[in-house]
TrEMBL record:
InterPro entries: A-crystallin/Hsp20_dom, HSP20-like_chaperone. Gene3D superfamilies: 2.60.40.790. This is Hsp20/alpha crystallin family protein. Belongs to the small heat shock protein (HSP20) family. It comes from Rufibacter immobilis. Residues 23-126 form the SHSP domain.
């Protein structure tokens, strides 16, 4: 039996097998933690080995979608989702103040709450 000695070929084959596994239904399931604090909630997604450029966070109404995409070096137009998860946010969230931070291998989404308590509304006179 002859061993393949071309390292570049082996790296490409390993990359192709990994990509095929993901396309064929293989799933990367990172750890997700939701930490509730007094003034905000913090969603932490642990994504080791995923660069910040591969991450996307989308807010549509009250649905937050966190995803990581793998872009093939040989075919830049082809993107394969590594991770994709939706989170339904409660109505008492300040949607305009959401903040996303990528640090090390952790993606954090800071979700501030709206101020609690009664709010006095201004009365217009016409």
């Amino acid at each position: 039996m002859k061993l393949i000695k071309d390292k570049k070929f082996l790296q490409n084959v390993a990359h192709y097998i990994d990509l095929t596994n993901t396309v064929g239904g293989g799933v990367v399931q990172p750890q997700v933690h939701m930490q509730k604090r007094k003034k905000e909630a913090v969603l932490q997604v642990l994504l080791p080995g995923v660069a910040p450029e591969q991450c996307q966070v989308v807010l549509d109404k009250n649905q937050l979608t966190v995803m990581a995409l793998h872009q093939s070096e040989s075919t830049p137009a082809m993107q394969v989702p590594l991770f994709h998860q939706n989170f339904l946010l409660p109505p008492h969230v300040d949607f305009n103040a959401l903040k996303v931070v990528h640090e090390g291998s952790t993606l954090r989404v800071h979700i501030p709450y709206l101020p609690q308590g009664p709010r006095f509304l201004e009365i217009e006179q016409q």
